[in-house]
Amino acid sequence: MKSHGELLDLNIHHRLIGTSIVSVGSLSGAVVHPREVFRDAMGYSASAIIVAHNHPSGRPAPSKEDIKVTQYLMLCGDIMEIPVLDHVILGDNLFYSYKENKVGRIKL
Question: Is there a domain that residue 106 lies in?
Answer without folding.
Answer: no
